[in-house]
C-alpha cells in the first residue's frame, strides 16, 4: 500500500521544482524583453534626434550680427523705418540663445534713446515719427539690457494715455489707425514700466472683447476676421489685465490647434500656408489658455528647424525660402516656448525672456 503522505510530498516537491523552473524561464524572458525595449527606445530616440536636426545657434548669432552691419543692401533700406522692431527681434533672439553679451550695450542703448521724441514716444529709427509699435520695442530693448532707469516713465505713459480712444481702443499714432495690436502694446508697455493704472483698463478690456468672434478668435477691429496674430494680442492683453476668464478657452483652443498643418507648421488662419512666425503667435496663445498640449510639439519643432539656413544662419518663413531677422526671432522664440534644449525660457505674454520679466517685477 502506498503511503499517501509521502506521495503528496513527492508530488508537491516535483510541482515546486517545475514551478521554480518556469519562474526562472519567465524572469529570463522578461529581462530579455526589457533589454530589447530599452535598446529599441534608445535607437528610436537616436533616430528621432537625427531626423529632428538641431538649432545651429552659432550661425544664427553671426547672421543676426551681420544684419546690423549691412546698412546699404536692399533689405536694410526697406527695413529702415522698422529698425527699432528689428533691434528687438534680433537682440531678444540673441538673449534667448544666451549670446546677448556679444553686443555693444552702450552703442545700442544710445541709439534707442536717440529715437525718442519730446512726446515720449519712440520712432522706428532716428528722425522717424513716433509710433506705439516702436515705443514698446524700445522699452523692451532697454529692459533686455537692464537699462529701465533711462526711461522717463511718466513721459512714455503720457504718450500712450493720449492714444486711448473713448471706446477703450488705442490708436497707433497721431493719425488715428485703430487695431487690437495697439491695445496689447499699450497694456504691455505700461505694465513693464509699472503704469498700467494710468489708462482706463476696464474700457480697454471691453473693446478687446467686442472684437471676439463666434469661432472663439479675435480680429483687428469688431467684426474683423479671426487671425492668429490678433488673437495673441487680445489674449496677451487679457492675460496682463487678469481677464482671461472672458475667453472661451476650449473654443479658441480648438481654432488655434486647427492651425497646425501636415508639415507640422502653423498658419495664421484657415487655408493658408504655414509660417514660422505663427510658432509664436499660436503657441503663446495656447500656452496662456493652457491648451498647448492640443498640438504636436515634435512636428512643430521639426518644421522650425527645417526652416534654418544651416550654412549661413537665419530662419525663414518656410523651408528653402530666404531668411530674415523677423522669422529668425520668432523661430527661436517658438522653440523656446517648446522648451527646446539650450534656450532660455520666454514669457508668452510679455514676449521677453523670463529672467528679464522677473527682474522687472521682482528686482529689489
TrEMBL record:
CDD domains: GGTase-II. It holds the Pfam family Prenyltrans. Binds 1 zinc ion per subunit. Its cofactor is Zn(2+). The keyword Transferase applies. It is an enzyme of class 2 (transferase). Transmembrane segments: none annotated. Residues 56-351 form the Prenyltransferase alpha-alpha toroid domain. Keywords: Metal-binding, Prenyltransferase, Repeat, Transferase, Zinc. Gene3D superfamilies: 1.50.10.20. One of its GO terms (cellular component) is Rab-protein geranylgeranyltransferase complex. InterPro entries: PGGT1B-like (IPR045089), Prenyltrans (IPR001330), Ptb1 (IPR026873), Terpenoid_cyclase/PrenylTrfase (IPR008930). GO terms for molecular function: metal ion binding; Rab geranylgeranyltransferase activity. One of its GO terms (biological process) is gametophyte development. It catalyses: geranylgeranyl diphosphate + L-cysteinyl-[protein] = S-geranylgeranyl-L-cysteinyl-[protein] + diphosphate. Its EC number is 2.5.1.60. Catalyzes the transfer of a geranylgeranyl moiety from geranylgeranyl diphosphate to both cysteines of proteins with the C-terminal sequence -XXCC, -XCXC and -CCXX. Belongs to the protein prenyltransferase subunit beta family. Heterotrimer composed of the alpha subunit RGTA, the beta subunit RGTB and REP; within this trimer, RGTA and RGTB form the catalytic component, while REP mediates peptide substrate binding. This is Geranylgeranyl transferase type-2 subunit beta. It comes from Arachis hypogaea.
Amino acid at each position: 500500500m502506498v503511503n499517501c503522505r509521502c506521495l503528496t510530498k513527492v508530488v508537491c516537491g516535483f510541482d515546486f521544482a517545475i514551478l521554480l523552473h518556469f519562474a526562472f524561464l519567465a524572469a529570463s524572458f522578461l529581462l530579455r524583453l526589457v533589454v530589447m525595449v530599452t535598446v529599441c527606445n534608445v535607437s528610436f530616440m537616436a533616430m528621432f534626434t537625427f531626423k529632428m536636426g538641431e538649432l545651429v545657434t552659432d550661425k544664427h548669432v553671426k547672421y543676426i550680427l551681420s544684419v546690423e552691419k549691412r546698412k546699404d543692401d536692399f533689405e536694410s533700406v526697406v527695413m529702415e523705418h522698422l529698425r527699432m522692431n528689428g533691434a528687438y527681434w534680433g537682440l531678444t533672439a540673441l538673449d534667448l540663445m544666451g549670446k546677448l553679451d556679444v553686443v555693444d550695450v552702450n552703442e545700442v542703448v544710445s541709439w534707442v534713446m536717440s529715437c525718442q521724441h519730446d512726446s515720449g514716444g519712440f520712432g522706428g529709427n532716428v528722425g522717424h515719427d513716433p509710433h506705439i509699435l516702436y515705443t514698446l520695442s524700445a522699452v523692451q530693448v532697454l529692459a533686455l539690457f537692464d537699462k529701465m532707469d533711462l526711461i522717463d516713465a511718466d513721459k512714455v505713459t503720457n504718450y500712450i494715455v493720449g492714444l486711448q480712444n473713448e471706446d477703450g481702443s488705442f490708436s497707433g499714432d497721431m493719425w488715428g489707425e485703430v487695431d487690437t495690436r495697439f491695445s496689447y502694446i499699450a497694456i504691455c508697455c505700461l505694465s513693464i514700466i509699472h503704469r498700467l493704472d494710468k489708462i482706463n483698463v476696464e474700457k480697454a478690456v471691453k473693446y478687446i472683447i467686442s472684437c471676439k468672434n463666434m469661432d472663439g478668435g479675435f480680429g483687428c477691429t469688431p467684426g474683423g476676421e479671426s487671425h492668429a496674430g490678433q488673437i495673441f494680442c487680445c489674449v496677451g492683453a487679457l492675460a496682463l489685465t487678469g481677464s482671461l476668464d472672458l475667453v472661451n478657452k476650449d473654443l479658441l483652443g480648438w481654432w488655434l490647434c486647427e492651425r497646425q498643418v501636415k508639415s507640422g507648421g502653423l498658419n495664421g488662419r484657415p487655408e493658408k500656408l504655414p509660417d514660422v512666425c505663427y510658432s509664436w503667435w499660436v503657441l503663446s496663445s495656447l500656452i496662456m489658455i493652457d491648451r498647448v498640449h492640443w498640438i504636436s510639439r515634435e512636428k512643430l519643432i521639426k518644421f522650425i528647424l527645417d526652416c534654418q539656413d544651416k550654412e549661413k544662419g537665419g530662419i525663414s518663413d518656410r523651408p528653402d525660402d530666404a531668411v530674415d531677422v523677423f522669422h529668425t526671432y520668432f523661430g527661436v522664440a517658438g522653440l523656446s516656448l517648446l522648451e527646446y534644449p539650450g534656450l532660455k525660457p520666454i514669457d508668452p505674454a510679455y514676449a521677453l525672456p523670463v529672467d528679464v520679466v522677473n527682474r522687472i517685477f521682482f528686482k529689489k
